[in-house]
């Protein structure tokens, strides 16, 4: 099981930990953290957390093309960039889930 510990970079004090064996990747943007979980055949589960205290701001499933490899999932401020093999780049606004 993966345990991720978050520290305050000002004084290196421990803030909180995230323990979930299904977390595949973590992306950081100003003020928010994106947790990318293991994908299922049709979607990838995602969670957006507040960096300050770890509260879940949003939890959603991003639909994927079933038989296509995911080239990358990147977070850029409040935009999520998702690219799958031989597909157009998807840019998702994470605040309202609009493409």
From TrEMBL:
InterPro entries: DUF7899
Protein name: Uncharacterized protein
Classification lineage: Eukaryota, Viridiplantae, Streptophyta, Embryophyta, Tracheophyta
């Amino acid at each position: 099981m993966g345990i991720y510990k978050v520290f305050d970079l000002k004084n290196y004090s421990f803030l909180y930990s995230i323990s979930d064996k299904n977390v595949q990747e973590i992306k950081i943007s100003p003020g928010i953290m994106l947790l990318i979980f293991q994908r299922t055949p049709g979607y990838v589960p995602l969670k957006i957390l507040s960096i300050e205290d770890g509260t879940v701001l949003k939890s959603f499933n991003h639909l994927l093309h079933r038989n296509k490899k995911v080239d990358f999932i990147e977070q850029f401020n409040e935009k999520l960039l998702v690219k799958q093999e031989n597909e157009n780049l998807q840019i998702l606004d994470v605040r309202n889930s609009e493409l």
